[in-house]
């Protein structure tokens, strides 16, 4: 049995049976059958059921938010906002799957004009989803909603820290789709995730740390199982000289401290240009200083993360950084008080590695160019933010990341129609939006001959005269400058 407990009180939130490798394989085999049935419903049949699930989730949002509080310690408001994001993505995926993935005819090409082209997106079959604990509703939903909308069945392995929320998602889905096990859940530790990779699934959607992503890729390599990897980040906010400094500070504090900083796209570093630096630091300290641990800044869910946060703060201070809020004493297990660090050198761990706590470093830079250079200086590239007016979008384009919010933080994660994913150590592939739907389907190209060939190129029966015509046609069509 896997017993899930509250990170601060230790109170049991629930317990679930642990799967072994054979049970995982059996779940994948059941899912393969279920996938055939699910696929046979077509886009409209699936949409109707997925919309019912969306409505159920929206009606019972307090219930799942409470469960998230019980087992991850997430403050209620944060859990509600998380669940709202999940509902948004499910709604978008269900509504748009047919338009994005449905069969279509493609334009005819002159050299093969007797053929019509057809494109359709076929589901993989069974998608294994491996999820983290920090956003136990929203992050798996990004993959689950895409995979289901595209016509796949899903076997989901939630984090060992949030199995009850994972089970709730599968149970509520079964309430609206009782016919077949289209969404199943398997519980356990990392070995269960590894077993899922080797269980015969046709695709793995992994969300978690970069270190575990590499293990997942190695496990998937044996059977060439394709993957989408949503890994960690070290996101930066750039505050330009024409930014609304107060708004930038408010967004930076929320982006850095929401969910106690345990957010893949959490803001961990700020780069403020010299003219606004002092005002920005003062506003951040003022706003972050008002936050209360407990109801606004929840506990750190994973005990070993507390050591990492403490090490990053200590390392920054040892290397010449200064705490203008919080600091060495901020880590009071299981809580970490908001911490703002300045003058932290670029080689400090808190600048280079994912901290995953309610901490923010603020660095003074000469201009946006230097901000970009420093912001782009880590191996990660997930999200980011820019505050400013004249050049904000130009700066946003040049941030090495998959997503950027301009004059906001984290906002791209809540938009159903935008893709979500990173570059570098933050992973590859996309969830959410049209790209997130296509991630869970294979494009299938079909050509259909409609008449005799005018320029028979692809046959041994072509004559020298026809080859000469092909050469002439090629030059006329493509040879001109
Ligand atoms: P982990 O990498 O520790 O775990 C992620 C999932 O993988 C868990 O379900 C875990 O199970 C499982 N797992 C562990 N070992 C293996 C293995 N060998 N093979 C297959 N699966 C395995 O991440 P966390 O749960 O700690 O989540 C935090 C991380 O997730 C952070 O780095 C964060 O940035 C990232 N993240 C990325 C997001 C994105 O969209 N880019 C969104 C949210 C988080 P178990 O829990 O039982 O160990």
From TrEMBL:
| Organism from which the protein derives | Paractinoplanes deccanensis
- Which keywords accompany this UniProt record? Oxidoreductase
Q: Which SUPFAM superfamilies match?
A: ALDH-like
InterPro entries per UniProt: Ald_DH/histidinol_DH (IPR016161), Ald_DH_C (IPR016163), Ald_DH_CS_GLU (IPR029510), Ald_DH_N (IPR016162), Aldehyde_DH_dom (IPR015590), Aldehyde_DH_NAD(P) (IPR012394)
Domain (Aldehyde dehydrogenase): residue spans on this chain: 5-446
Q: Which family does it belong to?
A: Belongs to the aldehyde dehydrogenase family.
Question: What is the name listed in the Swiss-Prot or TrEMBL entry for this protein?
Answer: Aldehyde dehydrogenase
Q: What's the superkingdom here?
A: Bacteria
Indicate the residues that form the catalytic site. 230
């Amino acid at each position: 049995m896997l017993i899930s407990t509250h990170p601060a009180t230790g109170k049991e939130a629930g317990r679930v049976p642990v799967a072994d490798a054979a049970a995982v394989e059996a779940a994948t085999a059941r899912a393969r059958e279920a996938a055939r049935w699910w696929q046979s419903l077509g886009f409209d049949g699936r949409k109707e059921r997925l919309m019912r699930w969306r409505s159920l989730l929206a009606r019972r949002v307090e219930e799942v938010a409470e469960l998230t509080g019980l087992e991850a310690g997430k403050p209620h408001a944060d859990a509600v906002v998380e669940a709202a994001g999940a509902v948004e993505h499910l709604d978008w995926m269900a509504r748009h799957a047919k338009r994005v993935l449905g069969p279509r005819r493609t334009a005819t090409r002159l050299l093969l004009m007797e053929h019509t082209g057809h494109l359709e997106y076929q589901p993989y079959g069974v998608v294994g989803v491996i999820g983290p604990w920090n956003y136990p509703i929203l992050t798996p939903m990004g993959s689950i909603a895409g995979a289901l909308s595209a016509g796949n069945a899903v076997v989901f392995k939630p984090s060992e820290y949030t199995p009850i929320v994972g089970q709730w998602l599968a149970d509520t889905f079964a309430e609206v789709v009782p016919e077949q096990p289209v969404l199943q859940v398997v519980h356990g530790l990392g070995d269960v995730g590894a077993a899922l990779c080797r269980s015969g699934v046709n695709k793995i959607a992994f969300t978690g740390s970069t270190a575990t992503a590499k293990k997942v890729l190695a496990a998937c390599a044996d059977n060439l199982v394709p993957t989408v990897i949503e890994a960690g980040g070290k996101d930066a906010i750039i505050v330009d000289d024409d930014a609304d400094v107060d708004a930038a500070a408010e967004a930076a504090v929320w982006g850095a401290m929401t969910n106690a900083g345990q957010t893949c796209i959490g803001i961990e570093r700020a780069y403020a240009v010299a003219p606004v630096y002092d005002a920005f630091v003062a506003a951040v300290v003022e706003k972050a200083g008002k936050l209360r641990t407990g109801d606004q800044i929840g506990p750190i869910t994973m005990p070993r993360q507390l050591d990492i946060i403490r090490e990053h703060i200590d390392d920054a201070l040892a290397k010449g950084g200064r705490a203008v809020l919080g600091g060495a004493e901020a880590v009071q297990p299981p809580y970490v008080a908001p911490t703002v660090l300045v003058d932290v050198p670029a080689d400090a761990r808190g600048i280079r590695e994912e901290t995953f706590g309610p901490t923010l470093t603020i660095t003074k830079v000469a201009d946006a160019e230097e901000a970009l250079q420093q912001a782009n200086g880590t191996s990660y590239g997930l999200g980011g933010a820019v505050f400013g007016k004249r050049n904000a979008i130009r700066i946003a384009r040049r941030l090495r990341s998959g997503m950027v919010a301009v004059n906001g933080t984290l906002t791209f994660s809540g938009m159903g129609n935008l893709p979500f994913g990173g570059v570098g150590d933050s992973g590859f592939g996309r969830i959410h939006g049209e790209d997130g739907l296509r991630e869970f389907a294979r494009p299938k190209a079909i050509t259909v001959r409609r008449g005799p060939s005018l320029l028979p190129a692809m046959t041994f029966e072509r004559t020298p005269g026809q080859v000469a015509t092909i050469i002439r046609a090629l030059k006329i069509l493509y040879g001109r400058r």
